[in-house]
Amino acid sequence: MRLGIIGLPGSGKSTIFQALTRSKPEQQAHKGHRIATVRVPDSRVDTLNRLFRPEKTVYARVEYLLPYGTKAYSPDGQSDESFWNEVRPCDALIHVVRNFHQQGGEAPHARDDFIKLETDMIFADLVVVEKRIERIDLDKKRGKEISAEERKLLEACLRMLEAQRPLRDDPELATAHLLKGYTLLSAKPVLVLFNNDDEDEIPPPWEEPPELCNPLVVRGKLEMELAELSPEEAAEFLTAYQIKSSATDRVIQHSRSVLGLISFFTVVHKEVRSWMVPQGTTALDAAEVIHSDMKRGFIRAEVLAYDDLMAAATYPQAKKDGKVRLEGKTYIVQDGDIINFHFNV
Ligand SMILES: Nc1nc2c(ncn2[C@@H]2O[C@H](COP(=O)(O)OP(=O)(O)O)[C@@H](O)[C@H]2O)c(=O)[nH]1
Ligand SMILES: [Mg+2]
Fold first, then answer.
1. Considering the entire predicted model, what is its pTM?
2. Beta-strand (E) ranges in 197-270?
3. What is the CATH number of the domain that holds 333?
4. What atom of ligand 1 comes closest to residue 195's alpha carbon?
5. Is residue 317 part of a domain?
6. Would residue 309 count as lying in a domain?
7. To test the ligand 1 pocket, which listed residue (34, 117, 221) has its Cβ within 8 A of the most ligand atoms?
8. Atom 1, ligand 1: which residue's CA is nearest?
9. Which one in 44, 148, 200, 281 has a CA-CA gap of 20 to 30 Å to 154?
10. How many domains does the structure of the chain reveal?
11. Does 15 sit in the ligand 1 pocket, CB within 6 Å?
């Protein structure tokens, strides 16, 4: 899962990237976007570790992408597309909105800032969709075969975007398979992070919030300082500022639920490992996440639910209890499944 960090210049993207990924500040010489991966904490993996005592443990990871470009607005109102192009391949976006006071005193105007970037995103999609429709119509005129279904979907996108609505408001349209290749920005799930002052935990005033995108309040600067501390110092810091869990954990857990992701586990070759896949993933597609050979040579999946393992205490006991099931290609993987794929290539 790759999450792209977007926001107006000065909203705190770099600060939050550093907080989330515990990475170093930007180097002057660095050109291009930055990517850092972070492990997804999961207490079930810790428990499996105690039970199986593997030599190696691998946690599922999320990737954060910090664009290199900035969303600058030139005086003629032209906006630079390179910023958007950097985040197009991401699965979801984290929209950082300034809700802290700037040095010198400018008060935050979170709502306006949010709408400004949101509008820009919708416009960027509109350009893509219009161009594509033109192209299809031209092809049709020339007697080429076109996809009427795709044309219809694009038309539906056009209507929404022209009404200034992000495509994510229509989940079916936003996830339509035929539109995947266009990497439309407003179709991606969004998490809004209000970047607050150190002493402030309150979301910004918002009279009529748009269908707001899973907002979370973080204190970027504070969290960045927290990320630089040793675990012992961090624990003291958390208590002092009454922070229950760090932004890193909250953002990950939140993204998981917003994106509808579930975890399954594998215990093989002395390795316990967690994997994240979208809800509704079949056993066959889950196998492919591990290795394309596993999908190609798929025979069956041996599945044990995490809770059943906990109830039985050991794998052999769970097997005796009849809790270990053999499932086929179309089985829908459930959160917490421990899966042993049988395959042959
Ligand atoms: N007070 C305060 N300042 C912040 C916070 N987050 C970022 N800043 C400051 O705002 C400025 C812009 O932050 P930066 O992360 O570079 O924003 P970017 O342009 O979106 O990458 C820097 O001077 C930061 O130190 C915050 O949560 N509180
Ligand atoms: Mg920056």
1. 0.88
2. 216-218, 261-268
3. 3.10.20.30
4. 27
5. yes
6. yes
7. 221
8. 197
9. 281
10. 1
11. yes
Residue 326 domain flag: yes
Question: How far apart, in whole angstroms, are the C-alpha atoms of residue 193 and residue 13?
Answer: 10
- Contact (Cβ atoms closer than 8 angstroms) between residue 91 and residue 10: no
Using an 8 Å Cβ cutoff, are 238 and 22 in contact? Answer: no
pLDDT in tens for each of the 345 residues of the chain? 899 999 999 999 999 999 999 888 776 666 789 999 999 989 999 999 999 999 999 999 999 999 988 877 666 655 567 899 999 999 999 999 999 998 877 889 999 999 999 999 999 999 999 999 999 999 999 999 999 999 999 999 999 999 999 999 999 999 999 999 999 999 999 999 999 998 888 888 887 766 667 788 999 999 898 888 888 888 888 888 777 777 888 888 888 888 889 999 999 878 999 999 989 999 999 999 999 999 999 999 999 999 999 999 999 999 999 999 999 999 999 999 999 999 998
Instruction: Judge if the beta carbon of residue 336 lies within 6 A of ligand 1.
Output: no
